[in-house]
Amino acid sequence: MSAYNHTFMYRIIVLLVMGIVSLCSYALSYEANVETEDTTTLGIENMIRETVAKRYDRVMMKALKKGSKGDLDKAISLINKAIDMDSSNAEGYYNRAYAYLLRNETKKAIEDLSQAIRLDSAYTDAYLTRGLAYADLGSDSLAITDFTKAIELDSLFAPAYYHRGVSNYFQHNLKQAKCDFSKAIECDTLYAEAYYNRAQIQSKEGNMKEAIADYSAAINADPYDAEYYVNRGNVLYAQKEYRLSIGDYNRAIHVEPEMALAYVNRGNAYYMIKDKMNACRDWNKALELGYKYNTKDRRFVRQTCPSTK
User: Fold this and answer.
1) Rounded alpha-carbon distances, angstroms, from residue 26 to 33, 40, 42, 134
2) I need a surface site. Which of 26, 50, 163, 283 has the fewest CB within 10 A?
3) Domain residues of the chain, as ranges?
């Protein structure tokens, strides 16, 4: 035990002894001064609770620091100690659940999140996180229930709308998913992922102009995600705007120089504008980066680019 923890244990023991002494005094002087004794006992009990609470907070802070450094085993061990100190604190179970999720122990995380919710039925983050855990297990219907509960508790909780949208998307409920992404954007106008996912739906529905607008909004909110440029480039490519699509693939490669798919797609766009040299250069670069062409496409590349192995 460290000197620091030992000091705290000593303070708790002292306070407990003081409590016992006070109770003995209370028994002897009950008839003489009931009101004074009650006040003293309550004061000591409050001091004990306050000291335990402070130690709980310090242990939890240590756990969070360990977790932030990737030492999840030590973090969970410290959180266990905190929970032993105060098993009625929902935060302890929530933090341990988060550590379990980072260790891919999803079922354990769900158990802890459920306990956190039992202790605090208005714990919005716990509903959101349990929803994410259910989604991780493929239980999107249970996830949607939790995301919906989080929204009921906080109607401006953008992540809950966003993640409910994702679950609805995976359940092929595109209309509701699109509504959820739109609501997330209403709550947070810089929610890049919400724009991106709504753009995916717009594209599926054939709303190419709206898809480009949403991809552009996602890029404005987060200009460092190569996928946003690639997908906007793909929509432009589908509209036969090949030179514009090349511009987006260029931007994607600038952000992520080893993104093989960006080279493949840029190569396709170069080929469509009859720039065979640059097309072959990009297709071969994609191969160098480990891109796996299907048999038909690989045969085409070999025929078009004689130097391709």
Assistant:
1) 9, 9, 12, 53
2) 50
3) 1-69, 88-171
